[in-house]
Write the structure tokens for this entry.
Amino acid sequence: MSVSELERQAQGWLLDCEIRQLSSNTLDLRRVITGKLLWYLREQGHTHCDGVAVRAFLAYLANGHKQEGGRWGNGQLTRAPRPKTIKLYYDDLAAMFRFLVGQGVVVKNPMEGISKPVVRQDQVQPFTGEQVQALLSAAKRSENPRRNEAIILFLLDTGARASEVCSLKVGDVDLTQKRCSVAGKGNKKRQICFGPTTARALLKYLSEAPRPEDAGLFLSDKGGSAGEGLTRVGLRLLFVRLGKVAKLSGVRCSPHTFRHTFAVNFLRRGGNVFTLKELLGHTALHMV
């Protein structure tokens, strides 16, 4: 299949994903992945997409950070991707090519014979109490102290996913009852609760600039999206900055580490894994 035809057919696959009502996060990820594949094929001078080209793309995904100029030609992307990221690319490309085979667009799936990437258990270290305090101190010295302190406390209290935090609207939060409604994977709604300290931090943050209920809860203050809802990339970069200011070591400073910290603390306080599964929005115990 030519690269130009692949681009056209990929749009048809993405449209089919929309028709099947996949979540906005899944759709966004699949747009990114197909866009990266097309970028790579053109950057390397491929006129057609076959098994060799797809295999080379997956190898580039794993090793592109070593090249001069960084992965995707971005000088800031010089770190190896997580194995889970490579598997996400593999799974979504496999889904796209299965769709194209089913539609009769291609006769042979170019991913046949390409082994699925191995993803070993990621041993995420939780934050210690001292590290949490260092992050809160860094947040209070940041450009947006009330927002950043509220985000840290909210993540610690709820174990919410980064995507759930970024999609929150003002109207989703009930400060009186100290709870809020989040949309998890597959747009599954669930209620999560937070403590009085987090409620006070949220109240202080919202009192800075009252806004309508359909506005984003946590707003971005940098880049082209300033004033809009904070994105997952923006949230990740926020914790990269805070982690440097707090001088953390031996732990990955990311939104997911807060989620892991919440789970560990919950179990240490005597909670059971069945309740934890529901709190985290997981569908199976092995995901806890």
About this structure: Strands lie at 173-174, 179-183, 189-193. The first strand starts at residue 173 and ends at 174. The mean pLDDT is 89. The chain has two domains: 3-102, 129-287.
